[in-house]
């Protein structure tokens, strides 16, 4: 009898360049959730953390900022989008400028990464 163990955690890393700055996107996939970190390459900070999840019985979205200051269209909103897309609980730390170029471009690249490597999420 052969037993195949599935790891409890798998990780994935990709890098993206936006406005001549390289950002790392780190993904930690767990059984029923995923943790996503986005930060500047070689200067990574962990300044904020948001969480979002769908309530299975009502299909409502719950989200909160766990750590840091909630800012405009920040991590909590992106965590909600990701949770809807991935159909699982999402923890997100997006330590990037909240401007009209960087954040939307990184969001687009993250969704491309989900399309190209769905097994990592």
Structural class estimated from helices and strands: alpha+beta
Shape type: globular
Radius of gyration: 15 Å
Task: Kindly report the spatial arrangement of strands forming the biggest sheet.
Answer: 1-2-3-6-4-5
How far apart the termini lie comes to 30 Å
Organism: Aedes albopictus
Pfam family, one: PAC4
Protein name: Proteasome assembly chaperone 4
Describe this structure in words.
With 121 residues, this protein is an alpha+beta fold. Helices cover 22% and strands 38% of the residues. A six-stranded mixed beta sheet has the order 1-2-3-6-4-5. The chain is globular.
Question: What does this entry show, briefly?
Answer:
The protein has two helices and six strands.
Keyphrases for this structure?
2 helices, alpha+beta, 6 strands, 38% strand, 121 residues, Proteasome assembly chaperone 4, 22% helix, single chain
Blueprint (SSEs and pairs):
Elements: E1 10-18, E2 21-29, E3 33-40, E4 49-54, E5 61-67, H1 75-86, E6 89-95, H2 102-116
Parallel strand pairs: 3-6
Antiparallel strand pairs: 1-2, 2-3, 4-5, 4-6
InterPro entries: PAC4
Protein name: Proteasome assembly chaperone 4
Pfam families: PAC4
């Amino acid at each position: 009898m052969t037993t195949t163990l599935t790891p409890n955690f798998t990780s994935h890393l990709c890098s993206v360049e936006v406005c001549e700055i390289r950002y790392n996107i780190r993904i930690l996939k767990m059984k029923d959730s995923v943790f996503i970190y986005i930060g500047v390459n070689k200067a990574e900070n962990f300044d904020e953390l948001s969480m979002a999840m769908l309530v299975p019985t009502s299909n409502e979205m719950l989200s909160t900022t766990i750590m840091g200051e909630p800012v405009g269209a920040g991590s909590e909103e992106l965590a909600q989008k990701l949770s809807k897309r991935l159909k699982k609980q999402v923890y997100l730390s997006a330590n990037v400028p909240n401007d009209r170029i960087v954040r939307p471009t990184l969001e687009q690249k993250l969704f491309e990464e989900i399309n190209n490597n769905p097994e990592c999420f």
